[in-house]
Amino acid sequence: MKTALSAIALICLSSAAVADQVSQQATQLEPQVIEWRRHFHQHPELSNREFETAKYIENYLKGLGLQVQSGVAHTGVVAILDSGKPGPVVALRADMDGLPVKEQNELPFRSQAIGEYNGEKVPVMHACGHDTHMAMLMGAAKILTDMKSQLSGKVKFVFQPAEEGAPVGEKGGAELMVAEGVMKGVDVVFGLHISSDTDVGTVEYRHGGIMAAVDPYKIVVKGKQAHGAYPWLSVDPVVTSAQIVMGLQTIVSRELPLTQDAAVITVGSIHGGNRSNIIPNQVELVGTIRTLDDAMREDLHAAVHRKAKGIADSMRAEAEVILPYGDSYPVTYNDPTLMDKMLPTLHRTAGQGKVQEVKAVTGAEDFSFFQKEVPGLYLFVGGKSVDLPKHQAPAHHTPEFRIDEAGMKLGVELLTNLTLDYMQQRQ
Ligand SMILES: [Zn+2]
Ligand SMILES: [Zn+2]
Predict the structure, then answer these.
(1) What's this model's pTM, rounded to 2 decimal places?
(2) Could you tell me the strand order of the sheet in which 89-95 lies?
(3) How large is the average pLDDT for residues 116-143?
């Protein structure tokens, strides 16, 4: 017992010493990380068009002496750091794409880039912070390479294109990377998102679903056309659709265990008819479903079919449900056992009072496709200046979006320490 305890004490001591070493290296590297981030910020590229971004990353990783593969899932870059010793394969992921947003910030490295999005010329901006993600992962790659002799196993650095979604008619992002085998042989995957309304120095986590599954759907309500003056001659798809819209809302409010997890069903578009005195023969509803739990997701999907068909049937109409209608994303799901195992790393890295378990968000992340393959953790890292009131923090995807670069150092340390500690635990 005594021996076991002192062995544990030794491990803790050594991880604390290693964490200090990582922290010192991250401090030394910080100006460089900021420089990389500014470069990416000034030269953003859209999803599946990250050509120059990829070249920059590829050259850098080759310079570190890693085995580098480019052109993965179009413009992705994957590099392996092999310690030469047996152990797990830890994947670390950063996304690479900017957005069709015109930057409004007065910064010396403000983006003035122009890109092409679905055939249209558009301004481009890193308006979600993926520039910081790449810079942080490059920082972690440098520190882990320098610490190669202390590793057991391999680190896979995954620079992923098209997180925001591939252009119309193209595939891309994490789903395509998985299809191309990027997660083969990987034991665990870690990823971060910078957060513009979370204080610098803070890391946020959640056990289980942290971001929602997305399922777009379409319902085609088919009736019978008639003159608007003689509705008894019609089977009215407009009135039927109105009842379906209301019926869908009762799935969430009356059928799902809401204290367990949130769920959303939105109807975003209704189209039917073309003038006041004609009851049309068809109405189309298009919307999105957000869930945080696989069982609730399945129940909600089944209920959408049942409600739409049942209501249509009661109105003598027909409803065709297309679900999913377009691209679905799984739940961004933090494996609870892994989360527990790695929590001490978060506490040791960020420090007292700087680690917070947060509520899930109903936005989505394609990191979820990696977590479908192997257990993984997705965390939020603070990018808001501590003295900026939360309500004034500019939102992601807006022209005013900005990040306090002081937040990146913690991200570099987290990626590095999660890797080191996971490897040590597996020994
Ligand atoms: Zn985004
Ligand atoms: Zn993002």
Answers:
(1) 0.91
(2) 67-72, 76-82, 154-160, 89-95, 188-199, 376-384, 203-205, 355-357
(3) 97
